[in-house]
Amino acid sequence: MEFFFRPRGVAIVGATANRERGGYHIVYNARQGFTGRIYPVNPRYREIDGLPCFPSIMDVPDPVDMAILFVPAPAVPDLAAQCARRGIRGVIVESGGFSEVGPEGQSCQEALRRIAADTGLRVWGPNCMGLIDTATKTVFSFVSPSIWEDGLVRGGVSLVVQSGMLSGGFLMDAMTHGDAGFSKVCSLGNKVDVNECDILPCLLDDPDTKSVGLYLESFVDGRRFMEICAASDKPVVVLKGGKSAGGSRAAMSHTASLAGNQWVVSGALAQAGVIEATDFKQMIDLCTALAGTSRWKAGHGARIAVVTYTGAGGILSADFMEGTGLILANLSPGAMEALKAIYPPWMPPGNPLDLWPAMERQGPLKALSVALKAVCADPNVDGVLLHTFVGGVISYLDLAEASETARVAGKPLFCWLLGRNKEAQEFKEAARRHGIPVYGELYRTVESMAALFRWRPPQERR
Amino acid sequence: MEFFFRPRGVAIVGATANRERGGYHIVYNARQGFTGRIYPVNPRYREIDGLPCFPSIMDVPDPVDMAILFVPAPAVPDLAAQCARRGIRGVIVESGGFSEVGPEGQSCQEALRRIAADTGLRVWGPNCMGLIDTATKTVFSFVSPSIWEDGLVRGGVSLVVQSGMLSGGFLMDAMTHGDAGFSKVCSLGNKVDVNECDILPCLLDDPDTKSVGLYLESFVDGRRFMEICAASDKPVVVLKGGKSAGGSRAAMSHTASLAGNQWVVSGALAQAGVIEATDFKQMIDLCTALAGTSRWKAGHGARIAVVTYTGAGGILSADFMEGTGLILANLSPGAMEALKAIYPPWMPPGNPLDLWPAMERQGPLKALSVALKAVCADPNVDGVLLHTFVGGVISYLDLAEASETARVAGKPLFCWLLGRNKEAQEFKEAARRHGIPVYGELYRTVESMAALFRWRPPQERR
Questions:
Q1: Which of B316, B357, B422 has the CB atom closest to A247's CB atom?
Q2: In B, which residues are within 8 Å of A327 by CB distance?
Q3: Residue pLDDT, tens place only, A190-232
Q4: B354 to chain A: nearest residue by CA?
Q5: Is the CB of A146 inside 8 Å of chain B's CB atoms?
Q6: Residues paired with B158 in a beta bridge
Q7: What is the CATH number of domain A128-291?
Q8: ipTM for the assembly
Q9: Which listed residue, of A443, B16, B91, B366, carries a Cα 20 to 30 Å from A183's Cα?
Q10: Domain limits of chain B?
Q11: Is B392 on the interface with A (CB under 8 A)?
Q12: CATH architecture type of domain B1-127
């Protein structure tokens, strides 16, 4: 599959000079970061933005390992056959109009399937948005070029999305809100040939990928998929679409997927060590937390210290932990001693640790520094849930120091964040650089932290 | 209770000129919008920022209906007694150090309780953050003055929060992220005298309040509270803290609250027509949706048209509706005819309505306009769930037109939004002005829309 991710040269069939069209976006996006050869193909142009344009795929010079097809569905099978004859190893078909639209499209897709089977040409798609690799800045997709304005935010999360528009929307939203960084994002569409069982192993082998999230409407080979997941030493998260009757009918018209029985699917996923997600952003949030398994060796305890500036946040943190596997740590006498030094005499520290009285006495910076050191050094504590606020009087957390304190102790530090929009974005971006997961909703923070502590590599699973 | 919200004059005991301290913030915040008289009280100053400062509460001239006390707990009971003698009708005690910190604080709180009982002085707090009224721009709170930089965003949601820091954090977060607008926000703290049964009726009478959310760690008079809720023709949402064993223990040390049995509480709330929330922001999201009950007369049907640019979003919308009471509408022949005119011939429209093929043919602006008119005019449709994306090629929704289309049809329009941060903020703010609820998470969108359709005024409850 390497020729999809790192081709020496890529042909773009259906390239156009009209800047409003996807056929232009594909060329534009490829040119931003990809360092191999780029060959637009369209008989109506001799060049596109100064790049020579070829009348047909047969005229494209070497080296060319891969082609992106972005032409009406009826033209795709013949073009794919030409690609196979030209010695191209794989095509990404980004156009729609196949099985998802009824009988006519279905016959186009069937023709495409036969070409893949007969020639060995690997076919990715159709009806998909291609791939994005932030590590190599390779974007083989008609996604809006505005994605480049914000930079592609690198991170440990890779995604496989059986959808087109959504993968692009996802990325722009998550990257510009400071919510996550990504390694590879693969949009699979109708999966006529290349499917999750082909792509997932590539991602599990990718050193930049620390966790993988998949949005799937069907499992092409459920048994094989579960085997891959069960053997994976990187966390895998799955969001299954079409679990309801209405959703299942919609899945049929979206990517012509048979959604399968939800209980069977959920059971098999759990058995394979897969964490099942319940919503799109929640899947990314879980993946961000689980990317930490490569950094933190979470032991078998899940005793959490909650450090907060708001009693109410502490109470709900405790409420939310119930049933997740996380438990409130009993702070050790040593930690209690260290904490008493910053608290007013009338206020005993506890867990949740309401730091407000200490912040008022010592200033937030000192209070937070002392408190984080105390709980991180505590042998009764396995992880820290820190409530933070930015944009007001108490936005004085030294993030670098906090991160270092957690790193030295080898204990996961998660943040729940409230605050002014601008400062919140800055905080989230800085925290991401320090490898500290940050969430805007408290339940999501607890749920994500619980996923990290619950996850086990295959050899440790029961 | 009017003297708390609209006093003719307010004394601020514990005012200070030190700009880093809460005692300064209270004075600063009061001066920004409150139009009555403001009297700082502190024997150490003759003036604060040009405002005459009085040595004691007895020296404060008329008119003075209310006092804010922000001094150490042991000094509070005597000061409250002085206030009663001075003819002041209510005090907001914003300092901490009472029941939440152990026996000593408990005796201060008990003394305060006796003064309230003996003199008739109403006591709000202690250990609270006071109140914010965005309609009158009255802020009686030590909340960070940075709250003014972003403007107080008005809206139909009022909050009652048994917590201090959180109410301020909430507000700044929700207002600067464009998530919600507020009418009144009341932070109640330890509830020595004034409690939810005093405040809730004020909010239900407030013409600016369309829905009320309460974060409570205890019910002071559960029976009376449920009666108020059961009779309310405005939606009430409650988030109960301390439902777990750990959370209940933390609630005791936060506001000295006995949290009660969670099952009994949940049952009573449901019977009183209260919607129970599960997290802080989710409570505000539900309130924002429910504020629409004053605008939309949701009938007894809940047949929803899902208009999307992403098949995957449509599928999960259908999945999420299951069990919420919302159902996928069967579009009428008339709507189908109107939609076919913008779709390619190979693609039949349906529900969820994947608009992408029509957007590609007609442009997003026209496709969305036609689609929204068609589903809003459809007698088989009771509400519209619209998926929107901003910051890329398809950010071409005419929000004013969409809002007008929904308004004329009298059908609730809810948006799920993905997109670039900057454009997303702008969209959310514009949508708020049009009264259209917008959410960043799909499940939250469905859940909030379901709450609006499920809610019934008292006379229509079974």
A1: B316
A2: 246
A3: 999 999 999 999 999 999 999 999 999 889 899 999 999 999 9
A4: A254
A5: yes
A6: B212
A7: 3.40.50.261
A8: 0.92
A9: A443
A10: 1-127, 128-291, 303-460
A11: yes
A12: 3-Layer(aba) Sandwich (3.40)
